[in-house]
Amino acid sequence: MTLSELLPSLAHATHFGLDHRLWPSTTHRDDLGQLCVGGVPLTEVADEFRTPAYVLDEDDIRGRMRRYRTALPGISVVYAGKSLLTTTVARWVEAEGLGLDVCSGGELATALAAGVDPARIVMHGNAKTCDELRDAAHLGVGKVVLDCPLEIAFLAGQVRGRQSVLLRVIPDIDIGGHPAVATGTLDQKFGLPLGGDAIFEAAHLVLDQPALHLSGLHCHIGSQVADPGLYGLAVTRMIAAMAEIRTRLSVTLTELNIGGGHAVPYTTGDTELDVDQFGAAIESALRTACTAASFPRPALVIEPGRAISARAGVTVYRVVAVKSQPNGRTFVAVDGGMSDNPRVSLYGAKYTVTLANRHTPTPDKVVTVVGRHCEAGDVIARDVLLPADIHAGDLLAVACTGAYHHSMASSYNMVGRPPLIAVANGRCQQLIRRETVADLLSRDCGRSWPAPSLAPVSRGPGDAWRALVDGE
Ligand SMILES: Cc1ncc(COP(=O)(O)O)c(C=O)c1O
User: Fold this and answer.
1) What percent of the chain lies above the pLDDT cut of 70?
2) Tell me, what's the pLDDT at 186?
3) Is the pLDDT of residue 2 over 90?
4) Which of 10, 85, 293, 341 is deepest in the core (most CB within 10 A)?
5) Which stretch of 104-108, 176-180, 272-276, 296-300 has the lowest confidence by average pLDDT?
6) Which pLDDT band, with edges at 50, 70 and 90, does 188 fall under?
């Protein structure tokens, strides 16, 4: 007989309920109350890889890649690697038939180390270095998205064959929300504005370079966009711009890339972009705009990142301390924080947290989950419900941490970045190992003793220190 059968009330306690829109698709609670993802109890992940740890549901992330392809036939899906990229993730991307968008030499190197066909890669960046442009050209990436006229002549000088390029355009669409994620408006750093002559002058410069092939335009209106109509508006404006380029420069561009930014829910009640409605909105806008301008239908490309990777990820933390302050707030402090999740302090992002290691009949209370870093703003989730008997040693799982967590992590306070563990069919696969203090110290050119991991093994007080730096 299971524990839930013995104590049916357990199954109804609020902190046992999971909003399945927020958690990886394979998530469930076992009879002991342990949260399981990919058939693996998170307690096992914590035992084997310690905490904090990023856990990634392979079935979930690959299923979302597939869902995009089947829901949007005829549209090329390019996964935005900035949301989460490792060599294994890059291999999944290629195996599922998606392209890969990179925005730095490091992301490009990761894609190539995974064996991704360079022709499937789109290279972005508002300040690509000369080295990055040269590498992109020499390695034969499929498309380079040009962000400013200065890049044009330099790239043309590096190209060996002929390089396809897109021009990044600002469609002047305000998605609302946090200014840090509104990239479709004029008052930000990416791209060339619609209206005025900037786009046409840049297009002219590209067309003057025989080594470059101007295949189309690109835009990205921002992040966490839930309204499909905003993408329809982007398509309308971009087709109008392509038609004007045809009129002014006598060239018909054949590709329109409308970026990513598809919203996902982080907490219950958050809206998400519906992929079917998105497909219908852009299709309708494309048909109308092309008909109005007598413009031939271009190939459509989209670049979702978060909508593919966010919900596949969960972060597992160990509770280190629980403290009730005189103002009545209870702080639950965990062994990670803003170094593995900078989004709360950057954007005021909100998260969903649950107890991950046990059942409890205790009712919930409102607590604030905080990190271990030396900042009062180091918060993971403010005013969330957790069981009132939460205590040091418990495990917490935070939902929707697959995107912009591993990829945005830092080593603030000399805390090494967490490992990334893929789970599927009851098995764990370590994709990224934990960053140790030895890793961090190895960059410190002023250290006066040998790298600790290279020191001879000895018994004695040094062992504890060695274990610390080796992360054992
Ligand atoms: C050019 C471009 N494409 C795609 C994306 C992916 O956005 P998201 O992960 O929100 O889908 C971004 C995110 O910043 C971007 O800048």
Assistant:
1) 90
2) 72
3) no
4) 341
5) 176-180
6) confident
Which residues contact residue 372 at a Cβ distance below 8 angstroms, ignoring those fewer than 6 apart?
320, 333, 334, 335, 336, 337, 378, 413, 415
Question: Which of 78, 83, 405 to mutate to test ligand 1, by most ligand atoms within 8 A of the CB atom?
Answer: 83
Decide if 155 contacts 212 (C-beta within 8 A). yes
Which tokens sit at 152? 């044009």
Which ligand 1 atom minimizes the distance to the CA of 83?
9
Indicate the length of the chain as a whole number.
472
Mutate to test the pocket of ligand 1, among 173, 223, 231 (most ligand atoms within 8 A of CB): 223
The overall average pLDDT reported for the chain is 91
Quick one: pLDDT at residue 196?
Answer: 86
**Residues in contact with ligand 1 (CB, 6 Å cut-off):** 80, 82-83, 101, 124, 220, 223, 259-262, 303-307, 403
Nearest residue to 388 via CA among 359, 358, 366:
366
CA of 377 to the centre of ligand 1 (A): 26
| Rounded distance from Cα 80 to ligand 1 centre (Å) | 6
36 is catalytic: no
Which atom of ligand 1 is nearest to 168's Cα? Answer: 1
| Distance between Cα 112 and ligand 1 center (Å) | 20
Nearest-5° angle of CA 308, CA 407, CA 222?
A: 60
CA distance 383 to 330: 9
The protein residue whose alpha carbon is closest to atom 3 in ligand 1 is 259
Percent of the chain with pLDDT over 90: 85
With a CB cutoff of 8 Å and minimum separation 6, the contacts of 458 are: none
User: Which one is catalytic: 103, 130, 219, 374?
Assistant: 374
Burial grade of 376 (CB within 10 A; 0-12, 13-18, 19 or more): exposed
- The tokens describing 397, both together, are 């799982």
pLDDT tens digit sequence for 135-168: 999 999 999 999 999 999 999 999 989 999 999 9
| Cα-to-centroid distance, 100 and ligand 1 (Å) | 12
Going by pLDDT thresholds of 50, 70 and 90, the confidence category of residue 187 is: confident
Residue 445 has pLDDT above 70, yes or no: yes
